[in-house]
Specification:
The complex is a heterotetramer, with two copies of chain A and two copies of chain B. Chain A is of the alpha/beta class. Chain A contains six helices and eleven strands. In chain A, the strands form two sheets. In chain A, strands 1, 2, 3, 4, 8, 9, 10 and 11 form an eight-stranded mixed sheet that branches. Chain B has one domain: 3-Layer(aba) Sandwich (Glutaconate Coenzyme A-transferase). The two termini of chain B are 24 Å apart. In chain B, a hairpin with a 3-residue loop joins strand 10 and strand 11. By secondary structure, chain B is α/β, with parallel strands linked by helices. In chain B, the strands form two sheets. A nine-stranded mixed sheet of chain B has the order 4-3-2-1-5-8-10-11-12, sandwiched between helices. A three-stranded mixed sheet of chain B has the order 7-6-9, with no helix packed on it. The chains are: A alpha/beta, B alpha/beta. At the C-D interface, helix 3 and helix 4 of C face helix 5 and helix 6 of D.
């Protein structure tokens, strides 16, 4: 089973369709599938729905697809870094569904794990709960608490950034660049992954693998810009 | 007279107990880390890290290592990384002992609003709704009044809520108040602030 | 004439496609691994492993490395380990292409019973209910009749179900049948078995 | 914050009460908290409810607590290896709640993750679904399917076996001995862990940690028998 593709464009060949739902890994600009996003821009696919915690900045991340008006809707928890996003949203060009960050992460994991719905107290009593099913559960302390139901997300495509992959698609992430990537991979009917290095099978200790290759269908290796959004430093002490 | 930002952060740091896992929000709460002293406090960053270290020395920034405010940070020898679902699993599951969060408004029932001002730019709640719903103890660290001098400790919140009945304690530039049955209870006045001044600056019912 | 256990396993192995992730049940299904040949098949063990290898050479047994039947096994160079929640997440989530499982009874609607005989010792379903509910394609690999010669391919199951309408294909010592609308459809007869013999040994409706 | 205790008995001090619910890691005899089970036997605590995939064998694992009649109820997926279990169950001395294995694992993860209920298709149409809430969901393929609700488990105590811990409780498991241990740890109000080796803080690569120390309250190091249940070997080829 050959999972390795020469580049982002070939790895997405045949997978992109107008109106599709794409789950993307990354938090801010950290651990985003920048090469695959670039290839989606080149492909020009329209009306995309993205489940992604953030929407990038104007000229990096999902932001590059906003500039080309390829995005119809975002399912996100925070989009504050993106002026073009705001312009399109306020003018009605772009739909936005806010999900609390933990709810979004759990919805992706659930969708990828055969769980169509789960209950959480996150958002109870807020606008997030509007129109959602409410249910009371008795806790282990005997007290009753109200929860809302959230649904699993199953995406047509997952685009993911990992640090290293072996040839069978086993993945290792690096530091906080892991973030949404494993759960985005889980919830995709097809999952395409970009990595900094593809290593031979057997290179990884099987106990160090963060996401087994069963979740990964296509892999590319490439050079990553890995832009820093907020460069904060301290004085040498 | 009142506390400045650093004094507020210092006061908030006294809330944290040895051995606690803590989540600090963006803004003044971030400063709390400077005042934990010798206490064994482990900071969680909800983008997938326990054991958050200080900002890096210039030149050591790592794009794969940021906090929930998207700032470059460092790791400690106790650090562990994990994915976002696990991160919020521990938040919702009550494993984080305490969150110190900024607030735009808090009401006398402990409702908190800190994510959205209608008509203004909509940025999103990020992890705030999960934190206030799941964390064991929620401390709102905030200015007591807005720039017009109006109280931000209200009878009813006017802004969309981040969570309902979620705040345990409020620390402001004027003092410390607990959310109790029937309203807010003064725990402590800031240096040079009288109880009368605290009453006068507070719209919420003080019991 | 009919297939023996190894011939049944060999026939089942032809169902597996290059690149598939597969779960093999206990008993005859375990033998299927001996016949995959050059195909790139990755075996899942639901206790938390992808890339299951053969039994160890004597002396290499590792108590930390067992399969779902609690037998000592080995790892391969592609192996990955994970916890039980992740393991069943991939099972329920449809990531496993195929499961080959033993069965006590299958009916003409694809209902499967393989976990419990009322009045006998109750052992438990283990992972069988999750597998039949979640895996992409479920193949029942079983004897066509019981020791009394009664059909195990029934109109209605008499035993408590493991799953309802979950079996896609049945491979027995007498042949191969698919679960289709209205009943079972003969795909293939075992060596030396006629369609009439298959009909005679089958209580379920054959369409 | 001192998490390290000298032995299993001291690590359980003050935590055991009659009638409590204990979540235990392990699959078969692999990765079971054998030292802590021994200390529970010594403590003699009665009427215990165990959420554990298996019940051990007659003289190892939870089986040792069945012999002393300390167990009131098991929540398990498979208990076939244990004759004493069967005797007590058939005589009505022991309650048994069967959970499909994946449902049990997910219930533990859910309980530890603030999720009081979730939907699964596992068990629909079987005795497992009796009395449980049924709900239809429309899948991404447009088809409607029926699911049942299962509840999260929050245990009074979790007992867990890991391979190594650092002094802050960060855990690393080994091979298939990981199994239910991480999710058992998650769902415990208090979690006590036994390991083969406690290492200094900083020994682990932070990307190799399987379960962060936040889930771990007490740790002991000890010698493990690690009994093999089914020794299967092949000929040297």
């Amino acid at each position: 089973m050959q999972k390795i593709y020469p580049n982002a464009t070939s790895a997405l060949d045949g997978l992109l369709t107008s109106g599709m739902l794409i789950a993307a890994g990354g938090f801010g600009l950290c651990g985003i599938p920048e090469l695959l996003l670039g290839a989606i821009k080149d492909a020009g696919t329209k009306n995309l729905i993205f489940a992604s915690n953030n929407a990038g900045i104007d000229d990096f991340g999902i932001g590059i697809l906003l500039q080309t008006h390829q995005v119809k809707k975002m399912i996100s928890s925070y989009v504050g870094e993106n002026a073009e996003f705001m312009r399109q949203y306020l003018s009605g060009e772009l739909e936005l569904e806010f999900n609390p960050q933990g709810t979004l992460a759990e919805r992706m994991r659930a969708g990828g794990s055969g769980i169509p719905g789960f209950y959480t107290k996150t958002g109870v009593g807020t606008v997030i709960a509007d129109g959602k099913e409410h249910k009371d559960f008795v806790g282990s302390d005997g007290n009753t608490q109200t929860y809302i139901m959230e649904e699993g997300i199953v995406a047509d495509l997952a685009i993911v950034k990992a640090w290293k992959a072996d040839e069978t698609g086993n993945l290792i992430f690096r530091k906080t660049a892991r973030n949404f990537n494993p759960v985005a991979a889980m919830c995709g009917k097809v999952c395409v992954v970009e990595v900094e290095e593809i290593v031979p099978v057997g290179t990884f200790d099987p106990d160090h693998i963060h996401l087994p290759g069963i979740y990964v269908h296509r892999i590319i290796q490439g050079d990553h810009e890995k832009r820093i959004e907020q460069r904060t430093v301290r004085e040498k002490s | 007279m009142a506390w400045d930002r650093n004094q507020m952060a210092k006061r908030a740091a006294t809330e944290l107990k040895d051995g606690w896992y803590v989540n600090l929000g963006i803004g003044i709460p971030t400063l709390v880390a400077n005042y934990v002293g010798d206490k064994d406090i482990t900071l969680q960053s909800e983008n997938g890290m326990l054991g958050m270290g200080p900002f890096p020395i210039e030149g050591d920034e790592d794009p794969d290592l940021i906090n929930a405010g998207k700032q470059t940070i460092t790791e400690l020898n106790r650090t562990a990384y994990f994915d976002s679902a696990t991160s919020f699993g521990m938040i919702r599951g009550g494993k984080i002992a305490c969150a110190v969060l900024g607030a735009m408004e808090v009401n006398e029932k402990g409702d908190l609003a800190n994510w959205m001002i209608p008509g203004k730019l909509v940025k999103g709640m990020g992890g705030a709704m999960d934190l206030v719903a799941g964390v064991g103890r929620v401390i709102a660290l905030m200015d007591h009044t807005n720039k017009h001098g109006d109280s931000k400790l209200l009878r009813q919140c006017t802004l969309p809520l981040t969570g309902k009945a979620v705040v345990d304690r409020i620390i402001t530039n004027l003092g410390v108040l607990d959310v109790v049955v029937g309203g807010l209870k003064i725990v402590e006045c800031a240096d040079g602030v009288t109880e009368d001044e605290l009453h006068a600056a507070t719209e919420a019912k003080i019991v």
